[in-house]
Amino acid sequence: MENSTLTKSSILLLAAAILLLFLFPDLSTPSPPPSPVSCTNGITNNCTVTNAYGMFPDRSTCRALKVVYPTSEQELLQFVANATASKTKMKVVTRFSHSIPKLSCPGGSDGLVISTLNLDRVLNIDSTTMQITVESGVTVKALIEAAAEANLVIPYVPYWFGLTIGGLLSTGAHGSSLNGKGSAVHEYVTEMRLVTPAPADQNYATVKALKIGDPDLDATKVSLGVLGVISQVTLQLQPMFKRSLTFVTRNDSDLADQAVSFGYQHEFADLAWYPGQRKVLYRKDDRVPVNVSGNGAYDFIGFRPTATLAIQTYRFTEKIFETENDADGKCVYSQLITSTLAILAYGLTNNGLIFTGYPVIGYQNKMEASGGCAFRSKDGLLTACPWDPRIKGSSFFHQTTVSIPLDRVKEFILDLQKLRYLQPAALCGLELYGGVLMRYAKSSSAYLGKEADVLDFDFTYYRQVED
Ligand SMILES: Cc1cc2nc3c(=O)[nH]c(=O)nc-3n(C[C@H](O)[C@H](O)[C@H](O)COP(=O)(O)OP(=O)(O)OC[C@H]3O[C@@H](n4cnc5c(N)ncnc54)[C@H](O)[C@@H]3O)c2cc1C
């Protein structure tokens, strides 16, 4: 018994020490994530396709006969025409492929994957209409940077900027807000160009240009990649603004009553729930004018280039508790992690360098998303994104998200709390992945968009590497 306690204490001490390595974002230059496509015969034939985690949920290997890398809409049209003429199945794969589900697999082993890696140009920014037109492989990072150069911003985006505009639209990705049209990026699409298969008398492929008001746009702007290849997207931007963000931790006794009203109190509100600790991190985050003083930034710690040793230690420690079925150990570990993150203000700084206190006020383009680990040059994997599959013993997890209509949120939270009371330590594992992240999104006219105003609950948890 004493030995076991000693072992756990040592592990926690070691974990705490290694955790310090997380704190230094730039120990050295990190390695960018691997390509999701690798081919054995030359660089474009006999390929396997995966996601950024190196494993689909069903652990199957996805194969494709060929990958192509169009560099323009004209080339894309030709590739789609050739594949249509030869009745080849095709699917789009992106630069990093961050979706967990097997969405980019063309099926069988003789399909075609069309990569948007080289469709990465910002085509136009119209300052008068405040619209930006980009190719579909442009990342959220590049989109934010290009808009900011024109003193414009996209109001809501997913928090991780390593996504492409084509991929995030296809999956209906969002930030968190109940303001205006809500937090889903597809609500801000004004035009979209799509390359689709066509009959022989149209040379087997055609470009569909859809504008706001066209009913087909409701089908294509969230389409899981099955209605054609998005070539270009135009988005409505807004004038630059600042945000004022304060994180507040409270106990979760009134969470069921607070969760919905909190979403209406702050434009960029979200909640991170630590059910084992009975705590909730409330994000009080609002738009403020640009003349309010502050030059803060949010560079979320979990998305920074992280020392490989720290990644491995984190996983190693979690795995020990998992293997020993030690739920209490996980609870202690999660307290250590969450209190460390709180001390570090989760990656917020008041001036881009250090955190001096709340509120953190900064320009929208510096506050809305981050993801430095995806955008650096090679360093032989000394550092990486925590989930990089090339690292033995990297973070490996699954995520389940449920959208709960706002009028059912209270019951849902009460039900979860009842489960927690039955097994108080059982949900601590979720806290090792930032807790249950709760984000607001609004109902949409997009066919695959939200049917009602909702609170999305993200549950991220340990996944075993081997079967
Ligand atoms: C660290 C992290 C944080 C995240 N945070 C959020 C968040 O805050 N909010 C949120 O909603 N989601 C979030 N996600 C999930 C993410 O938004 C989705 O997984 C997103 O779809 C991934 O975009 P991608 O560019 O990697 O596309 P992929 O995963 O590569 O592709 C997704 C689908 O889109 C299709 N597709 C891609 N491009 C095109 C195109 N040009 N034409 C037609 N089809 C296309 C693909 O075929 C595939 O079916 C996060 C993911 C990660 C890894």
UniProtKB/TrEMBL annotation:
Keywords assigned by UniProt, alphabetized: Oxidoreductase, Signal
Pfam families reported for this sequence: FAD_binding_4
PROSITE patterns cross-referenced by the UniProt entry: FAD_PCMH (PS51387)
Domain FAD-binding PCMH-type: 60-240
Superkingdom, natural source: Eukaryota
Leader sequence segment: 1-30
GO molecular function terms noted in the UniProt entry: FAD binding; oxidoreductase activity
PANTHER family in the cross-refs: GULONOLACTONE OXIDASE, L-GULONOLACTONE OXIDASE 5
Family: Belongs to the oxygen-dependent FAD-linked oxidoreductase family.
UniProt name for this protein: L-gulonolactone oxidase
The organism of origin for this protein: Rhynchospora pubera
